[in-house]
């Protein structure tokens, strides 16, 4: 079976992207089930693009400020992504909410991560919110993107204990370790085994 085509979207350091690059490089695209065909970003000058360049991957940048409206940016992002004909899109620390045009093309096959156990603590401050709430366990979620904020169907989750001495940075670092490993496993399974979405349930054969 041919490796599935991945477009990975980044906004910052690209550590999740690097985890995917390393896993695919170690196993080989056919064994892993997928290959990265392009890396997209919403801004220039970020480490994620540097990682892509070092790996010899094509890149594109689609900045909101270069478009007259969010809808036009969303359409441009969808078109730039579609140019690489991906089977799956991976939002790897991509800090923009995609819109109707993007979801019309890639809804149900765009994978995202979140540093909490959804549906608890959605939004931009999942780690901080879990600490403030006094939760004893948090973690990370790999889910499909829909038109809400961290509301798409859950694919997999990993738990992380909250320690008494934790601050936001320390907890987030431990969550990121689990998140990278979980994302690598999930993308491989989706690519190799296929999947279906039944209501809110993601079924992987």
UniProtKB/TrEMBL annotation:
Which residue range or ranges hold the Formyl transferase N-terminal domain? 4-187
Report the catalytic activity: N(1)-(5-phospho-beta-D-ribosyl)glycinamide + (6R)-10-formyltetrahydrofolate = N(2)-formyl-N(1)-(5-phospho-beta-D-ribosyl)glycinamide + (6S)-5,6,7,8-tetrahydrofolate + H(+)
CDD domains in UniProt: FMT_core_GART (cd08645)
Q: Which GO BP annotation is one of this protein's?
A: 'de novo' IMP biosynthetic process
Q: Where is the active site?
A: 114 (proton donor)
Q: What does this protein do?
A: Catalyzes the transfer of a formyl group from 10-formyltetrahydrofolate to 5-phospho-ribosyl-glycinamide (GAR), producing 5-phospho-ribosyl-N-formylglycinamide (FGAR) and tetrahydrofolate.
Family, according to the entry, reads as follows: Belongs to the GART family.
> Do you know which HAMAP family this protein is assigned to?
PurN
Name-wise, this protein is Phosphoribosylglycinamide formyltransferase
Lineage of this protein's species? Bacteria, Bacillati, Actinomycetota, Actinomycetes, Kitasatosporales
């Amino acid at each position: 079976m041919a490796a599935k085509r991945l477009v990975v979207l980044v906004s910052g350091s690209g550590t999740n992207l690097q985890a995917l690059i390393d896993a695919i490089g170690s196993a080989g695209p056919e064994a892993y089930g997928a290959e990265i065909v392009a890396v997209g970003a919403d801004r220039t000058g970020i480490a994620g693009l540097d990682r892509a360049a070092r790996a010899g991957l094509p890149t594109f940048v689609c900045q909101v400020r270069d478009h007259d409206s969010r809808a036009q940016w969303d359409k441009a992002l969808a078109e730039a992504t579609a140019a690489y004909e991906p089977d799956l899109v991976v939002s790897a620390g991509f800090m923009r909410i995609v819109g109707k045009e993007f979801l019309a093309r890639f809804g149900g096959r765009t994978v995202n991560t979140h540093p909490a156990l959804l549906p608890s603590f959605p939004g931009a401050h999942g780690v901080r919110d879990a600490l403030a709430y006094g939760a004893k366990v948090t973690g990370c979620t790999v889910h499909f993107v829909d038109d809400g904020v961290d509301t798409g169907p859950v694919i997999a989750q990993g738990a992380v204990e909250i320690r008494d001495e934790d601050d936001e940075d320390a907890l987030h670092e431990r969550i990121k370790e689990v998140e990278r490993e979980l994302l690598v496993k999930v993308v491989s399974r989706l690519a190799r085994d296929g999947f279906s979405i039944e209501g809110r349930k993601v079924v992987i054969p």
